[in-house]
Amino acid sequence: MALLLLTFVALLTIGLPIAFAMLGSAMLAIWIDAFPMTVFAQRVSSGVQSFPLLAVPLFILAGNLMNQSGMSERMFAFARALIGHVRGGLAQVNVVASVFMSGISGSSLADCAATTRVFVPEMEKAGYTRSFSVALTASSATLAPIIPPSILLIIYAWVANISIGDFFIAGIIPGLLIGAVLLGVTALMARARNFPVEGSFSRSTLRRTFGQAGWALLLPVLIVGGFRAGIFTATEVAAVAVAYSLLVGVLIYRTLDWRGIGAALLSTARDTASILLLVAAASPFAWVLAMNNAPQVMLGFITSISDHPVVVLLLLNVMLLVLGTFMETLAVIIILVPILIPLLNMMDISLVHFGILMIVNLLVGQLTPPLGVLMFVSCSIARVRMGAFLREVWPFLLGLLAALLVITLVPALTLWLPATLR
Amino acid sequence: AQPADAQTELRFGHANGEGEIAAQLFEDFAASVEERTDGELTIRIFPNEQLGTENELVQQAKAGGVDISAPSMPSASLLVPQLEMPSAPFLWDSWEEAHAMILGDAMQPAFDELAEDHGLIPLTKVWYWGWRNFTFSDTEVREPADMAGLNVRVPEQAVWVAMVESFGASPTPVSFADVYSALQQGVVDGQENPIPTIYNRRFYEVQDYIVMSRHMLQNNMIVMNKARFDSLSNEHQRVLLEEAAKYSAMNTAIQQRLEQEMLDEIEAEGGTTIITDPDRGAFAQALNDADAYTTMAERWGQENFQRLRDAIEELRSR
Amino acid sequence: MSSLLLAVLRRVDDAIALVENVLISALCAVLAILLFGNVALRYLFRSPVTWIEEVVVAAFVWMIFIGVSACVRSHQHLRIDVVPRLLSGPAKGILGLLGLLCMVVIVAAMGKFGYDYAVFVSGNLTPILGISAAWLYIGLPLGMAFTAVHLLRQFFDEGPSRVLESVLEREG
Ligand code: NA
Ligand code: NA
């Protein structure tokens, strides 16, 4: 196990792509232990050979089709008509629009790229600094994987063997809570920094922009409704979401042409490949860990510190926060969840509750170096330096941590809605 | 076989959760082997799909990634298709019959192929999992005609789809994790699973009828990498086979007793009618009429399936 | 490398990239159409088409492993760039060369083991269509072969220290 982890860190350090660093270290460990290398190849291939995972490209495609048909602009316009008139209105609009977008987009990366391109220039025009705008946009992009649809939720449910429908619904309240926290932090900053006020509320603008955005806002309703009716498996719900996005883009918005569809298909295939390569690479890595008794080691280690479920959850939070700063979110989920399941079962911690807080934890790490994917994406698109970003992002990080604490201590926030909607 | 090292460790990967009877018995099997060989032969167990799913673990046992695995017969049929034959619907009259046939000459060619082409030998050919039975929400099903037009959740695999379609019902895929709510909300009218699953997953709470159709036998095996087995001393080989046989018998007895206890408990709770005497002959006839066996046997080899059916006929006529 | 060989390499690399992009876009479309078609058919004819699952899983696996190669070409795989960022001059070049070397070894080994596995399972037939399981797994070694060509071209055209850069580092 030491060899695996050391090789992995070494390969990461010299700058190999994360997936290839996992593959290289797992390969070496399997080879040194004289296992047949067919096992390595099997773990890589079968890691992605799974019907439930087909929901991943489909939800990415649905989001890409919506993006191609100009979704971010419509969401921004609707959110602006809704709350643009308050102090720091455009900053609030950014958060609210991100909440809307997260009901359509399954991955924070795609979401973050699209919103940075649209929201940051708008905010800059209105007099906000670019680094603040980027920090806010990146922070609110954490909502996409918490509110369904979500690639992370699909993959966690797949690894933990729980119902994707239930897990999707479990994300809704925590997602809205985080949205509310971000709004709150923004409101405090608006007062402290005397953010601009612009425009006034107009019922007709609201009606007009809703007419535009409403079609897209129906998608999350369709998704949750599909699961609730139990009519569809996750893959089928995702297939229907694709068809719906195509229909809205081509027939209603009339902004989606063959070129746009082609672009959406290509970027979906590429995004899927880079995401699923991480899944494939984590699979032999997890195999080596299991062969080396990692679940028992983890169980022994944690229970030697405490056997109180709340203390254990807090400990796991700290561990996940640290891991999240330098590790890829998906990889952590695939490698760590099988190792933690015996512990969670023993402690009687719900896999649904743990899943949500695990994902929130890891998303916080996406906003910080050394590996902060959301930070990278938004900073590189808007050309903001990492130092300037970090100076602006800390209040939002504190807000996210506070929300995380509440989600950890109040399981009902995650468990109530799926139980009620049953 | 050559004399083994002073201490040999075998790796046993399986897919069963730690709460399941099988998982416990596998632990006991390992402990028993260790004790009888004075610690010379130990078995390390990796439960709960830790190293891979059932299908993947068979491949790993073949490659030598693990030494021992406990696949279901359909899982092993990915290597040798005719190993799926004992899971054919409405094939058996009783467990005794199935047990005798799985151990008998008619299935031996399948195990020979498993050993020769894939280097896997059975430590035990039998690891009883139970009969699959139908449950329904509102419909009292005693014969295939009663099932006509119902949506029935089955695994989306050829044998199940062919079977349910022969009965005039619609096979509907629902992921296993969602079966309970699909039944509750009436998305499907019924499902089929072994009694322990129906009991543990509490499907009976949302079902009015359990039909003891015993339509498919679910049987697992314990298989071992042949090269690894051959490398053990005769004494160790003997211990492995004897202990596997012992725990297999113990498992059958426990599972069958538990099945009855679960059924009794379900009945005592009320609200669920257990139909103990559905017309199994009519179901088998419906499969014959729809030529479903011919369709299924395309994968297994028609001559292989004929061989098995002839042997069953012969046993019954004795 | 002689300029003629280099020109050939660029041609081949461009051709592979074109094939990859067309193939993965098409596979993505096939996935979406078949899976939506399956839902629609189920509600029209109340009967699932069992071969669809086998076909879409195969298309999915191919899309992923060919897509991995396409992502290498477009620098889409993420990495931690703290150490490469700290270095400059020859040290940066040496580190880049070392990383590239590791990458090539890993890609080559994945290709080899992937090919061996395809051979290992080639006797197994898929349950429904009855075709050799090797077809499912050969996408991995093929994707790795394509990847190797991309790495070689990037080595000559961009220099060792830039091959493993991610698109985010390049934009930022
Ligand atoms: Na989302
Ligand atoms: Na980070």
Automatic annotation (TrEMBL), chain A:
Q: Where in the cell is it found?
A: Cell inner membrane
Against NCBIfam families, the record matches this protein to: dctM
Main localization (coarse) = membrane
Upper classification of the organism: Bacteria, Pseudomonadati, Pseudomonadota, Alphaproteobacteria, Rhodospirillales
Write the protein's name: TRAP transporter large permease protein
- Highest taxon above the source species: Bacteria
Q: Where is the TRAP C4-dicarboxylate transport system permease DctM subunit domain?
A: 6-413
What's its job? Part of the tripartite ATP-independent periplasmic (TRAP) transport system.
What UniProt keywords are attached to this protein's entry? Cell inner membrane, Cell membrane, Membrane, Transmembrane, Transmembrane helix, Transport
Quick one: signal sequence residues?
none
Subunit structure of this entry? The complex comprises the extracytoplasmic solute receptor protein and the two transmembrane proteins.
Entry membrane topology? Multi-pass membrane protein
Q: Which family does it belong to?
A: Belongs to the TRAP transporter large permease family.
Which residue ranges run through the membrane?
51-67, 132-158, 164-189, 210-231, 237-256, 268-290, 310-337, 393-417
UniProtKB/TrEMBL annotation, chain C:
Transmembrane portions of the chain: 21-45, 51-72, 93-115, 127-152
Please provide the record's keywords in A-Z order: Cell inner membrane, Cell membrane, Membrane, Transmembrane, Transmembrane helix, Transport
InterPro entries in the record:
DctQ (IPR055348), TRAP_DctQ (IPR007387)
Pfam families registered for this protein in UniProt: DctQ (PF04290)
- Where is this gene product found? Cell inner membrane
Q: Does the keyword Cell inner membrane apply?
A: yes
How does the protein's chain sit in the membrane according to the entry?
A: Multi-pass membrane protein
Record domain Tripartite ATP-independent periplasmic transporters DctQ component: where: 32-156
Report the function annotation for this chain: Part of the tripartite ATP-independent periplasmic (TRAP) transport system.
Database matches in PANTHER family: 2,3-DIKETO-L-GULONATE TRAP TRANSPORTER SMALL PERMEASE PROTEIN YIAM
Q: How does it assemble?
A: The complex comprises the extracytoplasmic solute receptor protein and the two transmembrane proteins.
Q: Which family does it belong to?
A: Belongs to the TRAP transporter small permease family.
**The protein's name:** TRAP transporter small permease protein
Q: Which organism is it from?
A: Aquibaculum arenosum
